[in-house]
Amino acid sequence: MMNCKQATRLMSEEMDHDLAAGERLALRLHTLLCSGCARYREQMAFLRQASRQQVPDDDTPQSLR
Description:
With 65 residues, the chain is mainly alpha-helical. The chain is built from 3 helices and no strands. The protein has one domain (4-53). The longest helix has 20 residues, at 35-54. It starts with a helix and ends in an 11-residue tail after the last helix. The mean pLDDT is 88.
């Protein structure tokens, strides 16, 4: 069973690339059993989505940036 430190590391890696099947399964199992890590994962997803909404498109006029 993975610990919270390993789980949070995998959550960060998951943001950049696909995890191996075994890593995905272990992380899924851990977040099902650990409410703290499950909340952390939700918060990371929220922050990622929020930050993407704040990045201006290249078509946005400079005066509106």
